[in-house]
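The instructor's notes for this session suggest beginning with a concrete chain rather than abstract definitions. Hand out the sequence below and ask the class to guess, before any prediction is shown, which regions might be ordered.
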Amino acid sequence: MRYILFLSASALSFNALAQHHQEQDSLKHVEIEEVVVTSQVGVNKQLEKEQRASKQANIDQLLDRIAGVQMIRRGAYAWEPTIRSLNAAQINLSIDGMAIFGACTDRMDPISSYIEPSNLQQINVNLEPSFNNYGAGIAGGVNFKLATPELSQHPKLSGMLGTGFETNAEAIQTLASLQYSTDRYGILINGIFRKAHEYRAANMQVIPHSQFQKWNGSLAFKYKINDRNQLTAQYLADYGQNIGYPALTMDVAYANANIASISHVYSMKSTGTDLRSKVYFNHIDHAMDDTKRPAESVPMHMDMPGVSWTAGFYSETSFQKGKHYLQARASGYVNRLTANMTMYPTQGSPMFMYTIPDAQRNNVSLDISDKLAFSEHWGLDLLGNYSFSHSKLYSEQGEAQLSGMKDGNLDRGNHLANMSLMGHYQPSAHWHWMAKVGYATRSASLQEYYGFYLFNRLDNYDYLGNMDLKTEKALQASLGMSYQYAWMRLEATAYNYFFKDYIAGAINSDFQVMTIGATGLKQYANLPSANIVGAEFALRLKPFKYLEWISTIAYTEGIDNSNNSLPLISPFTNNNNLLLNYKGWTGQVELAYYAAQNKVSPEVYGDTHTPSATLLNAGLRKTFKLKQHRLTSNIRVENIFDRHYYRHQDIMKIARPGRNFVAQISLSF
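After discussion, reveal the predicted structure:
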């Protein structure tokens, strides 16, 4: 779904077509509790299992290892997920299907930063538009499914305690969970505390302003009213403090999230159909801070707080009718986003302005999917989405600030349509082929419409919003295959996105810069066209019961209508994992190669050349059975040869951590 006619082999799993339809295109499930990955890119199954086995794996690093997902890095904390190098408003990020939007104008707080392994059950990654994305978008999406208590026929108490330590940055984390279940209700409580000092790159080079600390906790209550009705209430709190961002000019004093929801499931036993509904509310409070930076690096002290809150709902169902597997969802949300800046010159009075002048978006959406199995060899998936998005400024102060940039009504309405058609062909139990074409649209984000002097560290320009932006559109195509044998699995993917009215920054000399030291000013504009193509490859070999080798390859490139290379495009990457299981011990050796990125256009987008890098990591894990308890220990060495390196999507080319020893232990009962 997301690319013009050509390529995207999202290698499909070898289930029968009817079952295959129920999983949908490039959908990957990373099970946190059971540590299982099922997806059309099935090679990742064992690899993700190993990453999750300690129960303490970092969410950012887990996402970064999924083929097709890359992470934009501004420091040691809160990496920003991208899908096939598409990011921000081009992809959908959700928690349990809930729309959530960060409050930081510098994108320091992607919603993935507000969740932890301790409260996650599953990560669903869709490399292309999908029914599972919970909203329309140009690219795919990531949905983080929160853990909920399970009901038990007999009263049951279970839980987990764990702790971990990393020598680099002297990082610690402590986590715990407790669950009590009966046949009528269940309650789940969990929490985690993480703290890290400034980390060290190769040769013990300290990276200033890379520290962070946070705590995260959640509470879930499930109640079975009767055989047909079930209620679940959930609350998640995430509070981060003193978060350093070495790639940016400011740090974060605090980044707080409060997320609450109530869900209802109505089960129709006669048809095997469920009606699942949810109402939710979330509040994000974020404040940038420069008080801990050296005085000589802060030409003018600023306060930059931001607040985002979202209230919404969705109701969805699915059912089987003959050869059709049908899914439908109605959803909607209201999001309010505001951010401001107060500047304190050494002489004179403080100066105040909005950077997001009290913006609001109302959105309603309808999703319909039909998976049709013609036979055991042929299948067809149809997906449609219609959304209406209305954007406006909700305060007189906000309207007054932007009145000098645009006359008349500042409201914007967008009718958005996404459609795709995917065909499956499975000639035998070993081969599976997939071809897909689609059309997708997205509206400009609130920042792209109404942003006011947003500083972009990558190209060193101030940015202004543009209320005349057209809807961004994309033709999409993909082609995929997979081959499976008893001891081998091979997958290949190729894809193409052809954009019309691509949204990017364009130099505007009619306005002066606001940020001291900025190169100039850009305003968001529609480029006539842009194109992104890429491919993914995965191979799993298991010649012996105790030995397994997994290799993944990904490559992407993108250009605009003037043949300039698009920014933050991930180059060729190759990840190899050798797994050895013997008498309950699990050893892992990982060799990762990141090619140089020379396809850049620094004068247009600020991207600069990135050299290649090769890393070697190794780990050892053992689970001990202690009567009814399980003790899991895990040790790991990262960047064994202490290489100095950074990757292309690392803002300002800040060096990543050098050699790091990790020790983790957890007790399950």
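Then share the key points. The first strand starts at residue 27 and ends at 31. The chain has a mean pLDDT of 90.
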